[in-house]
Design a protein that fits this description.
alpha/beta, hypothetical protein tt1805, 5-stranded mixed sheet
């Protein structure tokens, strides 16, 4: 199974796309994950949806909005509340991880490989087969 992060963006507005995506395909949501880090001295959250592969496909998309909103444990915000509500309506829970910020990696792709390793290690996604 090939897993790949699909970044919807880094800004505030991208969360609405992620929420809409999850609302339209709740049956495909395998996991909802909030990654927390501190970027440039600010506590931020990256919100993501691990989707089930379409049909018999060998590709598993992981949609993410990278470091676009404040960490809700530090600064409650409506964007996280919308995400959490969508996740709950899909019958899932938000899993949380504290990670290194993306700016510590020389390339964004390396950051995503790091996250894939974390998800595999915690059995949120299957290893390559």
């Amino acid at each position: 199974m090939i897993q790949k992060f699909i970044e919807l963006g880094e800004g505030y507005a991208d969360i609405y796309e992620l929420v809409d995506l999850g609302s339209r395909m709740p049956e495909r949501i395998q996991h909802a994950i909030a990654f927390y880090s501190e970027k440039n001295g600010k506590p931020v959250a990256s919100l993501s949806l691990v989707m089930k592969p379409a049909h018999t496909d060998k590709f598993q998309p992981i949609y993410i909005c990278r470091e676009g909103i404040p960490n809700p444990h530090e600064q409650p915000n409506q964007r996280f509340d919308l995400y959490k509500k969508m996740v709950e309506e899909a019958g899932k829970e938000v899993s949380e991880f504290t990670i290194k910020p993306s700016n510590l990696f020389p390339e964004t792709e390396l950051f995503y490989q790091h996250l894939i390793g974390i998800l595999r290690m915690n059995k949120f996604i299957a290893p390559l087969s």
